[in-house]
Design brief:
Elements (H helix, E strand, L loop, with lengths): L3 E10 L2 E11 L4 E5 L6 H9 L6 E6 L2 E2 L10 E4 L11 H11 L4 H14 L15 H13 L5 E5 L7 H18 L2 E5 L3 H7 L2 E6 L2 E6 L1 H6 L4 H6 L4 E8 L2 E4 L4 E3 L5 E4 L5 E3 L8 E12 L2 E8 L2 E8 L10 E6 L6 E3 L2
Parallel strand pairs: 3-8, 3-9, 6-7, 7-8
Antiparallel strand pairs: 1-2, 1-4, 4-5, 9-10, 11-12, 11-14, 12-13, 14-20, 15-19, 16-17, 16-19, 17-18
Helix pairs in contact: 2-3, 2-4, 3-4, 4-5
């Protein structure tokens, strides 16, 4: 396996800067999730690592060796695309073996490695089938098998689960993590799905307008997003702004957020409590409940405070006594106040 690093990577398309001096390390054997809105540069970064995009500045290193002048086929990279890109006229086994044939691996060794990797992805009995005879999840596993059968040093995944329905996507997240752990391959994963990134990744990086704005373990980034963009992009966040005083942050309705150190703070919806009577919590304010949304075991309350929309998330049964709409109290613990820069 190999660590991957990009240093000062810059790529422009006309006047648009798709990558703006991005420097980032992808740990050896880790599962790294790249997140960002459309046009943030995450797929361009993935393609630059693979060699499909040539940057104007910066460099890519795999295992401490620069690969700027190394062609795509010699970078020892496996790649899985959103569309799977399977050959419809070939069987599953033939699809998986294709990369080995190109590398002129002997037939006996080829057959052994194909059988081995099909067992790994739990498709051992399906080698003689054609892609159209498989489910979406099975086709995705064929694409994974084809990418790893050549024993690459790095695996690149470009939104590989986005074409699947929700139930199958959750199932494939578990399978992806299992396969990556068993193989131990350095994996870089592009997704627009925040929940998917949190579930799969050892570390995540968030891109915006071609720049890296935050990087770290998922829990650390979620708990300490540092800026409003990251707080709202990774999960949901209620933002509160006001004037800093010696005791904390004074909001527009006079409420003091005790201990706050920045002029804007965030509170995650799961940490916001709702009650009909005034709570004893030191941080409390009045808001208007606009809507209750039922989503099975969990529920969401949409509220209005000072013209801002807030959300509270919790077990639906905990909201059972609340009215459909009307005045309520909101509160949270000081430890759940997240300071935001800028």
């Amino acid at each position: 396996m190999a660590e991957v690093r990009v240093e000062g990577l810059t790529k422009t398309y006309g006047t648009a800067r798709a990558l703006d001096a991005v420097t980032l390390a992808f740990p050896d054997g880790g599962f790294f999730g790249l997140l960002g809105p459309s046009g943030s540069g995450k797929t361009t970064l993935l393609r630059a690592i693979a060699g499909f995009v040539e940057p104007e500045a910066g460099r890519v290193l795999i295992g401490d060796a620069p690969v700027e002048n190394v062609p795509v086929e010699a970078r020892e990279i496996g790649m899985v695309f959103q569309s799977y890109a399977l050959f419809p006229n070939m069987t599953v086994a033939q699809n998986v073996a294709f990369g080995l044939e190109v590398r002129k691996v002997p037939a006996a060794e080829r057959a052994r490695r194909v059988a081995e990797v099909l067992e790994l992805v739990r498709l051992g009995p399906y080698g003689a089938r054609k892609p159209h005879e498989l489910s979406g999840g099975q086709r995705q596993r064929v694409a994974m098998a084809r990418a790893i059968v050549t024993r690459p040093r790095v695996l690149l995944l470009d939104e590989p689960l986005s074409a699947l329905d929700k139930a199958l996507r959750v199932e494939m997240q578990i399978e992806l993590k299992r396969i990556q752990r068993e193989v131990g391959i350095t994996t870089i994963f592009v997704t627009h799905d925040q929940e998917e990134a949190l579930t799969l990744s050892d570390r995540i990086g968030i891109l915006r307008d071609g720049r890296l704005v935050r990087e770290g373990p998922p829990r650390a980034v979620y708990d300490d997003p540092r800026d409003a963009f990251t707080a709202r992009f990774l999960g949901e966040a209620n933002l509160f702004s006001g004037v800093l005083e010696p005791g904390g942050l004074r909001l527009g309705d006079g409420v003091l957020v005790a201990g706050a150190r920045t002029a804007t703070v965030a509170v995650r919806p799961e940490n916001l409590r709702i009650s009909l009577t005034e709570p004893p919590a030191p941080i409390r304010l009045r808001a208007r409940l606009r809507q209750r949304i039922f989503a099975g075991a969990m529920g969401t309350c949409v509220l209005d405070w000072q013209g801002e929309t807030l959300k509270a998330v919790g077990r639906d049964r905990d909201f059972a006594d609340l009215p459909a709409e009307g005045e309520v109290w909101l509160s949270w613990d000081a430890a759940d106040t997240i300071p935001l820069e800028g």
